[in-house]
Specification:
This protein has 15 helices and no strands. By secondary structure, the protein is mainly alpha-helical. The chain has a domain of 133 residues. Bound molecules: protoporphyrin IX containing FE (2 copies) and fe (ii) ion.
Length: 453
Amino acid sequence: MKYQSQKVALGFFAVALALFAVQVTLGLVLGWIYVEPNFLSGLVPFNIARMLHTNSLIVWLLLGFFGSAYYLVPEEAEREIYSTKLAWLQLAIFVLGTAGVVVTYLFNLFDGNWLLGNEGREFLEQPRWVKAGIVVAALIFLYNISMTVLSGKKTAITNILLTGLWGLALLFLFAFVNPENLGLDKMYWWYVVHLWVEGTWELVMASILAFLMLKLTGVDREVVEKWLYIIAALALFSGILGTGHHYYWIGTPGYWQWIGSVFSSLEVAPFFSMMAFAFVMVWKGRRDHPNKAALLWSLGCATLAFFGAGVWGFLHTLHGVNYYTHGTQITAAHGHLAFYGAYVCLNLALMSYALPHLRGRDPYNQVLNMASFWLMSGGVVFMTFVLTFAGTVQTHLQRVMGMSYMEVQDQLWIFYAMRFGAGVAVVLGAVLFIWAMAFPSREIIEPGQVPAE
Ligand code: HEM
Ligand code: HEM
Ligand SMILES: [Fe+2]
């Protein structure tokens, strides 16, 4: 660790990993409810567990991004973070908001209350006071990180990272726009949900991946930067109008069927480029970096994001196909592999790289860490396959043959049982990862000895 202030990243990573554990455990609960529908129905009903599963996912991924920025920006800008106090304050606001959300959802408090009750829009269910807290915390973060960059060295990596982070915070403001009209409500809802994962978060992904490649492969900065600008341009060019793939059936004008189909097909390009980028850098790189686990997570991230977002996204993005597959298990298959490949793996890659530095050690528990990669990724990939089969059967029986929703669900039992099995592997993988990160082997670097770059 070159800069003392980078240590705040540790706090963000710790809270993120705790929420990650909560998220996958709730996934397992949801998976079991699909097999045994009355499981916990009195205590934690499906809808509540689902909100907690998806919301904790988003919050821990965001905390991971913030922690990554606090780690990475000092390295790039070559100076300490503007204010570590502000960073801790930001984390405290997030922890408070998260606790508020959990209590509100679990005990179903303040139902219907304008300020305190949950808002009921998938991913954006948080009560308004929590949303306001998120905005305040995001502003503190942006101020802190922008001040750091402005007074230090500006690089392509920090430029793209900051563009992504500012963009995602500004788009979150649309979470407050919730018109009565359901079509309009959905329109603005996708400004947040789609323009996050297929726009601004992609910029965050590209820049963090670029940082990791720079450090792990030793390729020249100029080369990394060229790729980074191309990927960022591709992401925005395709992703913004790609929003159209959610405007097929919500009452928006018919031209969206073509705009959505064409531009969202192009969205494969940035994900393909990120995969090509990662492999070309490793292939060209001269450095034999000791942190093999961070490299594995980075390559895994680029590859699984290409399959989850690129291939599984394209699978159902043409409006002629989406007419049949909309809202089936195909969507869930894609949602899981895309979120996992792109953003879960990205965070775990950066943590694998950064934590040894932050704790003043050489890369530790490499074998355990890599085992967790294979177990967790194997689990998510298997889950994606079984859900894709389930979705194909569901699409045919329900949308082609016209069977009723519940009748079809009865037919899918076997896939849901297998999905639960896959979920067990994912949870075990997550436990292994957290173990590998939290409990380093004993040796500590001697004073004066330089940790591996
Ligand atoms: C890191 C891993 C995981 C990620 C990134 C993730 C992500 C998500 C996302 C984004 C959704 C909303 C999907 C949609 O609306 O299409 C969701 C729902 C769900 N997840 Fe996960 N999840 C993960 C792990 C798990 C695990 C381990 C299980 C357990 C088997 C699981 C089971 C479920 C279930 C049953 C739903 C509800 C689907 C529905 O409403 O039909 N997830 N998850
Ligand atoms: C990392 C990037 C991505 C993530 C995390 C992601 C995640 C998701 C999630 C969670 C949903 C379900 C939303 C809901 O209805 O609740 C969804 C829907 C969808 N995604 Fe993605 N996605 C990504 C990239 C892509 C790409 C690149 C494409 C196209 C090539 C795509 C095509 C679609 C389509 C067409 C739907 C609507 C499915 C339906 O009609 O039910 N996605 N995505
Ligand atoms: Fe989308």
